[in-house]
Amino acid sequence: MPRIFFGLELPSEIKERLLNVRVSVPGAKWQSAEQLHITLLFLGGVEESRLEAVVDSARAIRPTPFELEVSGLGCFGQSRRPRNLWAGVQPEAPVADIHEALGQRMEKLGFEAERRSFLPHITLARFKRQPGSVERLLAEQGASVFGQFAVTEFALFDSKPGPAGSEYRVIERFPLSGPG
């Protein structure tokens, strides 16, 4: 059963700048360039028989293309003991709008809505056991700007766990074109 999620792909030049954030932090499991993305909506394990309905429903979402700036660093959890280190995006509203539209459509297909509030971000590192502090990193690079890019599509990804972390493969891309 594929584990799937909707997300936004990032241009390679922004990925390269994000990879330069890496510093030695105890417990950090840094994401590879292939793993860097913005998650819009995680669905989890989905039966193959439901995949076509998911794709068809997502095709009906027609947001307008927009510009997105990748800037700022933050973390989930306390900076002394983080769970995740992330880069932020601005403006958040168009990303949140796609998240909301996808959530509503997937709920109609019987998927459970996420209960957490949505914060568009790019996960840079995950922390499992005995995380080290990212306070210094946030103080030194917290206001960094990593670049801007045009968002012209979103994608449906398949996520397969692997020894170096999850591997992602695009199942389908959905162009942004605005109300038609």
Please indicate the count of domains: 1
Q: In oligomeric terms, what are we looking at?
A: single chain
Topology pattern, helix = H, strand = E: EHEEHEEHEHEEE
* Helical content class: 10-25%
Approximately how much beta-strand content do the residues carry? Answer: 35-45%
CATH architecture assignment name: Alpha-Beta Complex
Overall structural class, as computed from helix and strand content, comes to alpha+beta
Main beta-sheet strand count, sense and barrel state: 5 strands, antiparallel
Query: What is the CATH domain class?
Result: Alpha Beta
**CATH topology type:** Cyclic Phosphodiesterase, Chain: A
Give the count of helical stretches. Answer: 4
Number of β-strand runs: 9
Mean pLDDT: 93
**Major β-sheet strand ordering:** 2-6-5-4-7
User: What Rg is obtained from the alpha carbons, in whole angstroms?
Assistant: 17 Å
Outline the low-pLDDT stretches: none
